[in-house]
Amino acid sequence: MEGFMKYAGLLVSVLMLSGSGFSEVETKDVIFQQGLDGYTGTTDAELRNPLQHYENGPDTNILKLSEHCSACVIGRVAIRFDLSSLPANAEIENATLELFPDFFDGGAMTGNYSVFQIAQPWNENEASWEKPSADLVWANEGGDFIDAAISKITVPRQTSYDWISFNVKSLVQTYVKKPAVNYGFLLINSLGAQGIYMVSSENENTEFRPKLSITYSVDPAAVQNTIRHPVTGRSVKVQSLAPHGLRLINTGTSVQQVTITRIDGASAGHIALVPDSRYTVTGLQPGIYVVSWGGKSLVNHSTVSLQR
Fold this sequence. Notes:
single chain; mainly beta; Immunoglobulin-like; Jelly Rolls; 2 domains; five-stranded antiparallel β-sheet
């Protein structure tokens, strides 16, 4: 139930939550991998330098990732996972993109690899260094992507073959909230003379195909509100948790200073929420709580109170 009340001379939004209205947050693990449990939602393509022979699409078993090895094939990797089976209200706790190497070029060298958000649709069977599909061209050869890298890793000199993992939590959350922009991941060898031949989603070694491992939570009965700073526009989501707790979610790119205060004056805590984070407050006593910005006067600060 949502209403309004006067507090310190301000009209503030109130979420009234009864004890019987709380539910436990569900946490689930899922792995998206071509062929696993009938999943068929992976598409991938190797974008090779136009001066070199390249293959892509469903007949490709290997994806080459190399850019700074003078004697190697120059290539980038585009890969996409269909995430439509995830609930629209899923909050991503962890998301890891994992690829398995079939062979190393320059195995005695190290390599730096980055993952980027692809900026436009592409066709698995037609994508190349110059084109995302037969009738279109990339604005920038090698694929169009959002400039800021989602994840970066360094692969040491080849000593063994094991999964290569990237933390892609923030981008997976974006794709869940905005499925229309899910154009997948672009992998680039950003530095180093090492190059890797990756097992593709069509490889006959099914257990080594690319996979996206996700842990997510859903609280279908949680009442949620958003507090928004009136000057900067920055926002923090507030959710109820069973049996006596709150969850604060900062999906922004800057630190948010938030204070939780019971309306009778008892302070429950001052919290600095780092970017792309969540903070859980438990053990709260029944009452009405005000969540505000920075612990300062409520004047000119957006607030929301929760009745437990």
